[in-house]
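Input/output pair, single chain:
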Amino acid sequence: MTTDAVQEKIKELETRLEKVEANRSNLTMVLFSGDFDKAFAAFIIANGALAMGKEVTIFVTFWGLDVLKKPTMTGAGKNFLEKMVTMMRPKGTANLPTSKMNFAGIGPKLFNYMMGKKNIASLQTLVDTSIEFGVKIVACQMSMDVMGIKREDLIDGIEVGGVAAYLGSSFNSNTSLFI
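Output:
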């Protein structure tokens, strides 16, 4: 092997190593749940990874979309089934149930009270902070179509995309979580 061929091979390996190292800086999550406690965990992890200098993408699908809905979302402009889904599902972080100990809606209020006493940020604050500091949040277009959720029904700072958006992010991440 000539010196030039060795140099070329070293350069090729360095380029490949840079790509591998670059992939180690990303975190991708799928937020499937609309439960308060699970969404809270997702945004705690997202903000923690962001604070560690990681790039974070959260792909939000099906019930997870409840986290991103504006509390003022209405059934206007939707068909009968979409209006029913809109009426039956919570809108926004303040209306999410807990996965355990919900007690007809008292559970989330109890947890918010207890967290406030311990100076823990609210779920809405975690969502706002993650958007402000660069967490990429992608709402699943297919789930939105099925559930009759329009782009304008979501809070500001949310991208809309399909499974390719999730896979593209996931392929460039060294950690993928499903919540």
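The longest helix spans residues 3-23. The chain has a mean pLDDT of 92.
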